[in-house]
Amino acid sequence: MTKIRCAWCEKTDLYKDYHDNEWGKPVYDEVALFEFLILETFQAGLSWYTVLVKRENFRKAFAGFDVQKVANFKDAKLQVLAEDVGIIRNKLKIKAAVTNAQAFIKIQEEFGSFSKYIWGFVDGKPIDNNPKSLNDVPATTEISDKLSKDLKKRGFKFVGSTVVYAFMQATGMVNDHIEACWLRA
């Protein structure tokens, strides 16, 4: 029996694996949240597939997404990253990763964890949008607008509402699996 999936993931096995094992599953782990946040900011303006293909390279380049280490990257490290063909070499996004790590740590200090902060925007539980098809899945919502605005106020970069909504989908803050998808429940 063939599994019915959300149509966006049917192009490659890499997409299917990501869809089946990660996308839309609630994430509370600080390292995983930081990884998704950084990867989503690098994805801005590109396809998610581009990021997935380079994900392991990103993990190596960004110290396993250890937020403390990334927050302390110096200019020499940023230059090395800008020359690393294994990642997306956008200098502004690379610099933003360090800025975002520093802002992430400030949120951890203020709220006790980034998870507590981020999940507070959805009252601690996933929002179930129950889309019938991909056409019913929004690019942004009122909540992603609010969260984006708050992240920017706290110093984050490359966190527009579309990026934030994609982060919310990836980390299971919203359930946008289509009605027929085997992961819907």
From TrEMBL:
Q: Which Pfam families match?
A: Adenine_glyco
- Show the InterPro entries listed in the entry: Adenine_glyco (IPR005019), DNA-3mA_glycosylase (IPR052891), DNA_glycosylase (IPR011257), Tag (IPR004597)
The domain of life for this entry's organism is Bacteria
Q: What is this protein called?
A: DNA-3-methyladenine glycosylase I
Source species of the chain = Flavobacterium difficile
